[in-house]
Amino acid sequence: MNKKSIKNYFKFLILLLSACASQTPSYSPGSITLDSAITEAASYFIQPLPANARVAIVSFDTPTGRLSDYIFEELWTRFEDSKKFVMVDRRNLDRVEEEIRHQYGAGRVDDRAMVSVSRQVGAQILVYGQMTSLGQGASAQEYRITVYAIDVEKATSSQRAFIVRPDNRLTSLLNVSAEEEVERAVALMARNIDKKTVIAVGRISFADTQTVSSFSAWLKNSIVSGAHKHRDKFQVATDNESSDFAVASRGMTVETPAVSSGSGSGINAVVIGSFLPLDTGAEVTLQLVSTSENKIVMSSSRFIVSASELQRRRLSLLPETNNAVITKAQFETKQQAVAPYSGSGNRWNFTVTPDVLDGIYYDGDYMTMRIYSARDCYFRIIHVDVNGNTQVIYPVSSRDNNFIRAGETRRIPDNTRFRMHAPFGEEMILVSAYDQSFVPGQSSGSLSADSIARGLTVEDSNRTSITPSVTARFSYTILPRF
Predict the structure, then answer these.
(1) How distant, in Å, are the alpha carbons of 334, 432, 435, 447, 456 from that of 346?
(2) Of the candidates 355, 361, 364, 398, which has an alpha carbon nearest to the alpha carbon of residue 248?
(3) Residue 25 to residue 14: CA distance in whole angstroms
(4) Could you count the other beta carbons within 10 Å of the beta carbon of residue 106?
(5) pTM over cut 0.70
(6) In a domain, 138, yes or no
């Protein structure tokens, strides 16, 4: 090899090494691996804590259930192997975990609440924590893990935080399918009940709205499939039983369990939930709520479904219109337009309820609804279709009796049927009620804040404008049959 060739070879080698160096992930100073963070956290807390203290460790709030379980098991093992503490029986930790989840849901961790619930299981030291993403670095995503320890007797707390850089173990613990997360949530529900329970799956909606989507439908089906794997704990109500229960419960406010005509047993609990959009996917919250009078939350869980998982299944968080997902701006505009029908300023109890718990209909289904009023009034129903067109659908003829007595529940329609069909997507039912009779209107138009505001005002027999005393609404989604 001549000198020129050797020189060119070294130039190529330098360029190659430079390219490799430029692709090396850039981590924060002091960042460590997950296992190192767990080891250091355990050492930090084990040494100063009093000997023979009763220690309770609960699951961490992390992006995936598998990661939460791993951190819990590793910390538990280190505390137990120290031979310094009395570990609280794991079966007694569920109540502590539920309280922790409620505190995280509120966006803060209240030490006083943790002290109170820890005393109920006889814990002197409570260890818990969370792990959150720090966003994208130069070429790798890092996380912050924060571990808390509360001294129940002294009502004091301490914490230790670490920056965790990705490695093969962390990557494998984060790489969890959406099915696994749902199955883990259902397994947690099963673990938190001590006898066979009849359950129904209710509405799982976008944020704090009533909006459901293809993602809602997928979650429902996955929950039902997961529940069937725990037949010793769950009996899933049929669609007919859920429909009867939806009427009895007047929406999502559970009042009395409906009786199943098939088995003779009532629905004992309802799974409800919501999801929030994230840059990395969607954060899902599920709750199993008792149908008893006190409506106890029997179990709750949170997990993240990654954007890749949503894309792989072609699932959308927002509803679709004409096979196209609406934009977030369109969604927010629609929510603002129908805000006057939220019922926030109602003068008495007034509700409208669809005959399905989950807010999902399929092509060919028929809809009925129930209207309840605590006072005598006259009502009007407006339908908003998938394209945002509005139309009065009740009353529309002299046969339609739009008067409802105090304490009465009316089934609508009574003279016709509402059949679901294409185009598919989200639709709405808006109901306004007045304390005096009015002239039925046949107005129609496009959904907008102005048209909604105008539509609220009607005229009585003397051509005097009157505004509603109460309003109510619900949304639902029509999906094709597969």
Answers:
(1) 21, 10, 12, 22, 14
(2) 355
(3) 19
(4) 10
(5) yes
(6) yes
Same domain, 159 and 188: no
Q: Are residues 353 and 471 in the same domain?
A: yes
The alpha-helical segments, DSSP class H, found in 192-280 are: 214-228, 239-249
Q: Which two tokens stand for residue 247?
A: 């009427």
Joined together, the tokens standing for residue 151 give: 């001294």
Question: Domain boundary residue among 143, 159, 174?
Answer: 174
Give the side-chain half-sphere CA count within 13 A for 400: 18
Residue among 179, 177, 288, 304 at smallest CA distance from 229: 179
Number of independent structural domains in the chain:
3
The pLDDT assigned to 375 comes to 97
Dihedral angle computed from the Cα positions of residues 341, 347, 348 and 350, in that order, rounded to the nearest 10 degrees: -10
Choose one of 284, 317, 350: the last residue of a domain. Answer: 317
Hey, is 411 helix, strand or coil? strand
| Residue 79 and residue 200 in one domain | no
Domain with 457, as residue range(s), is: 333-479
Instruction: Give me the chain's average pLDDT, please.
Output: 83
Alpha-carbon gap, residue 102 to 111, rounded angstroms: 13
DSSP 8-state assignment for residue 152: T
Residues 277 and 339 occupy one common structural domain:
no
Residue 25 in any domain: the answer is no
Contact in structure between 142 and 170 (CB atoms under 8 Å): no
Rg (CA), the chain: 28
Q: Residue 406: pLDDT band by 50, 70, 90 thresholds?
A: very high
pLDDT in tens, 274-296: 999 987 789 999 999 998 877 78
Residues 168 and 182 in one domain: no
